[in-house]
Structure formats: structure tokens, C-alpha cells
Write a structure and sequence with these properties.
- The chain is built from 3 helices and 8 strands.
- By secondary structure, the chain is α/β, with parallel strands linked by helices.
Length: about 140
């Protein structure tokens, strides 16, 4: 599983020049289409806690209650999914990761039992890289 970044654009996560904070691999896009068909509209939350809390968790949209301690990084437009998939992160985690580009990928294995992909025998995983100087400038960081 895993692979190149494609299949989604990040609404609200890009600047006018096209810099983005988050992307999806083709495998993540495919899994999101499957999960959308099974569960309806979706959302992600990344808490930054220990163990599985450091992995992005996928829920039915609105099932995980977000608040002032969370940051909406993107509304991902996923090919084949009729509505955007919100990607939320705890504000504390965002403070540490604000200088990184995140890519949501899928790997074999079981993650948390609370995330929708768990019964599929796979789990979502974040891959990250530091923004380039040009990306940081475009994002205003």
C-alpha cells in the first residue's frame, strides 16, 4: 500500500499560489471512497497523543466533536467522494507540526479500533516532510 500523492486537493489548506499543508496518497483516496460508501460523510482528527493518538483517525463526519483546541487544516476534495473530508488536528500538535507538509497514507496492520478503517486490516498513517522555504513563504509561516 502507500504511494504517490494524488486523488485529492485540499480546499482551505492551500494558498493562492498552490502551497498545501496536506495531501492524500492514491491508496488513502481509494480507502476513503470505500469508507464513504460504507459510512457516509467522513472526517479526520489527529490528536498527537501517544500510541494510536499520533495516527490520523477517520470518523463519520461530526462524530468526533471538535472545539477551540482543534485546528481545521483542510477540507479535502477527494475524487469520487461527493463532499469534502475535513482534516482536524489538535492545536498543540499543529503548533509542533506547522512547518511540515503532511501526507495521509495507508499501510497494512490494525490501528485503533475507533478509526473506521480498522476492520479493513489497514490503518492510516501520516508521512511528513519539512516545507521548503518557498512553501513556508507562500503559506505565511
Amino acid at each position: 500500500m502507500g504511494g504517490d500523492e494524488r486523488g485529492a486537493t485540499a480546499q482551505g489548506a492551500t494558498d493562492p499560489e498552490g502551497a498545501s499543508r496536506i495531501a492524500l496518497t492514491a491508496a488513502a483516496t481509494e480507502l476513503l471512497r470505500l469508507l464513504r460508501d460504507q459510512h457516509g460523510p467522513l472526517m479526520f482528527h489527529q490528536s498527537g497523543g501517544c500510541c494510536d493518538g499520533s495516527a490520523p483517525m477517520c470518523y463519520p463526519a461530526g462524530e468526533f466533536r471538535t472545539g477551540s483546541s482543534d485546528v481545521l487544516l483542510a477540507r479535502l476534495a477527494v475524487e469520487g467522494v461527493p463532499e469534502p473530508v475535513g482534516f482536524w488536528m489538535s492545536a498543540d500538535q499543529f503548533a509542533r507540526w506547522r512547518h511540515t507538509h503532511l501526507t495521509v497514507d495507508v499501510v497494512p496492520g490494525r490501528g485503533s479500533g475507533f478509526s473506521l478503517e480498522a476492520p479493513e486490516g489497514v490503518r492510516f498513517l501520516i508521512r511528513s516532510r519539512l516545507f521548503t522555504d518557498e512553501e513556508r513563504a507562500r503559506l505565511g509561516d
